[in-house]
Amino acid sequence: MKTNFEIAVFEGDGIGPEITAPTVAILRQLAAQSDGYDLSFTDAPAGAAHYAQTGESLPAASMEIARRSDAILLSAMGLPSVRYADGTEISPQIDLRKALTLFAGVRPVTVRANQRTPLKIPEGREIDFVLIRESTEGLFYTQGRGEVTKDEARETLLITRDISEKLFKFAFELARTRKETGRGPGKVTCVDKANVFRAFAFFREMFDAEAAKHPDLAADHAYVDATALWMVLKPWEFDVMVTENMFGDILSDLGAGLMGGLGLAPSADIGLEHAVFQPCHGSAPDIAGQGLANPLAMILSAAMMLEWLGIKHDNAAMLADGTKLREAVEAVVSKGEILTRDLGGDAGTAQSAAAVAAALNLS
């Protein structure tokens, strides 16, 4: 009997529903032809449009759906025209991170041979690293609660031992998994600003303590400003990087730029029990409803979801399908014949998703 996994689906705002539909369709097809697992999907209303209609951005019922699910698939959230009374954006994804303690923000950066990229990559080189962004504290700790007066504004950066130790353990475990599967050399880089801030010296101290537990893996440090430089000059030298929330927020967009844009940037926010998988890009309301949106970051996020579920539940079929789905997207991008406008092509959402399905022999 196949094991069934419950997936909470937040289809989001703007282009969110347009990229969610083909992604869920591909997941349904993969599960239908698998002997090892099945998937069921439950819609969970949330987001800026929902807030504009109801006054709630993340209803309690939707949070309950997320809590009881095996994984959460979340599409683009937020609309520039809809904000809270204090002017901040509607961001249920951040609320989920904090409520479910999703401390590890996983941002893969992959550029395969022949893939278009702003960089000039030496022949024979590919880019394949993972940026892990702490997702619940750091400079985002006082989000929406900062102190603002006529003459001053203050936000509080928080780094705790509890979360940092979990984060670093996750980073080294990921580096080991990548090494065992041939995707990396087994190296973790701590990205900080320990030369200026005591908080980051504290961060680095805990990183070093975790590194000492993994003598079979390499560990080093890099200041965040130097890391931004090296991500442009020699990104192929990174394997796993781990950093604070705000630094990770900035560097992950730089990583997306290396791939050609946010349309190829998937992500996951992972805790001890729960995980959210979503594209890094926004809701792009200017092209919503036109069938132009790039679905690939959403599909890649779904691939990450399958791989995570496969590892968590020791389900080889899910792990294999997650890898197949990721490689299918990479093949479509490397081939370069069917690309959406943001990647230099003229394909629409449906055509792009169909190309991935064809690469999987689903259509």
UniProtKB/TrEMBL annotation:
- Recorded superkingdom: Bacteria
Q: State the top-level EC class.
A: oxidoreductase
Q: Name the Pfam families for this protein.
A: Iso_dh (PF00180)
Please give the catalytic activity noted in the UniProt record: (2R,3S)-3-isopropylmalate + NAD(+) = 4-methyl-2-oxopentanoate + CO2 + NADH
Associated pathway:
Amino-acid biosynthesis; L-leucine biosynthesis; L-leucine from 3-methyl-2-oxobutanoate: step 3/4
SUPFAM superfamilies found in the cross-reference section = Isocitrate/Isopropylmalate dehydrogenase-like
Identify the EC number(s).
1.1.1.85
Write down the SMART domains for this protein, in alphabetical order: Iso_dh
Summary of subunit composition and partner proteins: Homodimer.
Protein name stated in the entry: 3-isopropylmalate dehydrogenase
